[in-house]
Amino acid sequence: MIKKDTKVLIFGAGRSSVYFIKQLSEYFASNEKSITIIDQNFQHLENLDYNTVSIVLKQLEISEAIFEEYISTHDIIVSLLPATFHLDIAKYCLKFNKHLLTASYVDEAMQGLNEEAKQKGLIFLNEMGLDPGLDHMSAMSLMDEIKQNEGQISSYASHTGGLTLPSTNPSDWNYKFTWNPKNVILAGKDGAQFLKNGELQNIAYSEIFKSSTPITIAQNTYDSYPNRNSLNYKTKYDLENTNSVYRGTLRHKGFCEAWLVFVALGMTDDQNTL
Questions:
Q1: What pLDDT does residue 136 have?
Q2: 39 Cβ contact partners less than 8 Å away, ≥ 6 residues apart
Q3: Segment 239-274, tens digit of pLDDT
Q4: Residue 272: its pLDDT value, please?
Q5: Neighbours of 98 (CB within 10 A)
Q6: Which of 89, 160, 175, 270 is 20 to 30 Å from 222 at the Cα level?
Q7: Count of helix runs (H) and strand runs (E) in the chain
Q8: How many Å apart are CA 207 and CA 250, to the nearest integer?
Q9: Is it the case that residue 4 has pLDDT exceeding 70?
């Protein structure tokens, strides 16, 4: 249970933060807790209702000085900034003994803070978004149930993605930018690795969108392309004896074929300039 006078600090008010901030602010407004949100602009929050004393907006340039000043005076820190900021924020959370939540993948540097966080009794929750995040929770729930019933898992595959309803027609691709557009463009740039029938599969960026697999859910067919390094989750999911491990990103049919054109033309290469 979060104590009555808990102060939550959120760094970032971009596209992917809106629904989280809305839900959290509605809950906190009736529970005598406060939220401070720091970012350089709040254009994506313009339609939210701020007629509550629980929300304080601080339009500030992100810097280490800001991290030190504000992290020290709050209880729970949420980073919705680009992933490059998370490590610095995490180090200040350790310095001031504050809990931390992010939606980003855990890298080696963040994992390296694990022992110190545990020693200090702090909760550092990473990968708490949709993908990664909700996919972990739903997968582990199913796998725990299988193991409790003395079953064994010989093959694992998950497919996750933020999808629009086809009826909304946000674009000809049935895709809507609800997170950082740059990250959408660079998705898959590091290639992908997964295990298939005991054999390691290494997929280069140029081949990612050629490697999509059709997935049918509730009579609708989607494309799933391999998502980063699935092997990282063999140990986390306790799948050491599993001969196939695959994590995929879901998109509406036609997206992968169309996006492949941009990749082939070099339009998604952030090293190219016009």
A1: 92
A2: 11, 12, 13, 14, 59, 60, 62
A3: 988 999 999 999 998 899 989 998 988 888 877 665
A4: 61
A5: 23
A6: 270
A7: 10, 12
A8: 16
A9: no
How far apart CA 60 and CA 38 sit, in angstroms, is 6
Instruction: Please give the angle made by the CA atoms of 152, 154 and 157, to the nearest 5 degrees.
Output: 115
Would you state the structure tokens that stand for residue 245, as one six-digit string?
Answer: 């491990």
Length of the chain: 274
Distance, in Å, from the CA atom of 7 to the CA atom of 54, rounded to the nearest integer, reads 9
Cα 77 from Cα 7, distance rounded (Å): 9
Residue type at position 177: F
User: Is residue 253 within 8 Å of 246, Cβ to Cβ?
Assistant: no
Nearest to 87 by CA among 97, 102, 76, 74: 102
For residues 35 and 55, the answer to whether their CB atoms sit within 8 Å is: yes
Strand intervals (E) in the chain: 7-11, 34-39, 55-59, 76-79, 99-102, 124-125, 155-160, 192-196, 199-203, 213-217, 220-226, 244-252
**How is 43-105 classified by DSSP, letter by letter?**
GGGTTS---STTEEEEE----HHHHHHHHTT-SEEEE-S-GGGHHHHHHHHHHHT-EEEESSP
Backbone phi and psi for residue 9, each to the nearest 5 degrees, phi listed first: -115, 125
Q: By C-alpha distance, which of 195, 191, 193, 192 is closest to 245?
A: 195
- State the Cα–Cα distance between residues 215 and 248, nearest whole angstrom: 10
- Look up residue 150 and give its two tokens: 């003395």
Cα 7 → chain centroid = 23
What does the alpha-carbon distance between residue 105 and residue 79 come to, in Å, rounded to a whole number?
Answer: 12
Is 4 or 156 the better-scoring residue by pLDDT?
Answer: 156
pLDDT of residue 188: 84
- CB contact at 8 A, 209 and 120: no
Retrieve residue 127's tokens. Answer: 């990968």
